[in-house]
Amino acid sequence: MDYFKKMAGGAKCPPRVSISEIFWSWVGAFLGISAVCYLHYDFAAKVDMILIVASFGASAVLIYGAPKVPLAQPRNLMGGHVLSALVGVACFKLLGTEPWLAGGVAVATAIALMHYTRTLHPPAGATALIAVVGGEKIHALGFFYALMPVAAGAFIMLVVAVLVNNLAKDRRYPEYWF
Question: Coil, strand or helix: which one is 6?
């Protein structure tokens, strides 16, 4: 019975953030995602490269919308994405004939390794999964996927996060680097 009682929750919803916090979150997300998209469409795509992965949208929520949480710090953003990309590619190469298995092993292993390395970043679970289910263009990149688009795109978003999150007097980013 205690098992089911846990599902009822117990805490109250946190209060709404200030208008200033909403504004700076919007500005950061707009500039960060726009920068990666611009570089993707105007440069990378023209030479048949990729610079953006869908998991960056979720990273934007953390690094611009919740910049104080441990999951949003640079070590987690960069380390989580790169590690998960490597795991995802390895799982695709080893288990790609069974995508259901490769996807499950990739995400679960990425989570375990992010915990172990203290680089837990929830959107990086999607980065591992994208390496498995992402299609021919992603698969053709092999382990290069971890550098381009993953590391390069995450780094661009990190630079924007450092610049924008420190413009407001009541925001600071990062809380720590390593």
Answer: helix
